[in-house]
Amino acid sequence: MTASAHTTARLLIVGPQGSGKGTQGLRIAEAFGIPEVSTGDIFRANIKAGTELGKQVTAILDAGDLVSDELTGALVSDRLSQPDAEDGFLLDGYPRNAAQVQHLNEILAAQGTSLDVVIQLDVPREESIARLNLRSAEQGRSDDTPEMIAHRLDIYEAQTAPILEAFGARGIVERIDGVGGLDEITERIFAALAARGIVRTAAV
Ligand code: ADP
């Protein structure tokens, strides 16, 4: 790769619950020096801090349902307008349905930008369930009960997986096998990004 390679990267990571997208997303964001914008993390932080937003979404998260598109969209729009997201970001958990894809397109078009790459982490449903059961035992997340896990996977399959078709038509989807060791999967993602000219700069 040459020095003219991307120094900016607008990325989205998509995968079912338990695909490891949070972990991988953080690694990628760190490697490129871009903020990781995780709607789930933002909601959980607000719930923990007892903010007004947190109060509004607690019951929704506990039920495994989606927060309204309006509320989530406003949150993301605000976050992406902050200076640290000017040169790139890694989105995790947004957009999650067709309406949110449309809203994100509008947010980015207003900035004169668009997504560079959508990283699709592929993990079979059975593997996702096994990993989430483990996470539930370890972390005790209130939405990680078996019923809630199944419910969120159903929503993923019905609403989120289809958005990949729209991104696929734009030619920006990189499909990554999400089964394997954590480092192995990180390397797969870096290789796929490098093939598109998105490489870590030598700086720092
Ligand atoms: P998971 O991927 O394991 O469901 P997340 O941390 O991505 O976990 O999201 C947790 C919860 O936060 C979701 O179940 C949903 O209630 C809410 N949430 C996160 N992102 C969105 C979104 N884009 N739209 C609506 N609700 C969202």
Mean pLDDT across residues = 92
The CATH topology is Rossmann fold
**Rg, Å, rounded:** 17 Å
Q: Give the H and E element order.
A: EHEHHHEHEHHHEH
CATH class: Alpha Beta
The number of helices is: 9
Strand arrangement within the widest β-sheet reads 2-3-1-4-5
Helix-residue proportion: 40-55%
Topology at a glance:
Elements: E1 9-14, H1 21-32, E2 36-38, H2 39-49, H3 52-62, H4 69-80, E3 88-92, H5 98-111, E4 117-122, H6 125-139, H7 146-160, H8 163-169, E5 173-177, H9 182-194
Parallel strand pairs: 1-3, 1-4, 2-3, 4-5
Helix pairs in contact: 1-9, 2-3, 4-5, 6-7
The chain binds adenosine-5'-diphosphate.
Descriptive terms for the model:
single chain; 204 residues; alpha/beta; Rossmann fold; five-stranded parallel β-sheet; 9 helices; 5 strands; disordered N terminus; binds adenosine-5'-diphosphate
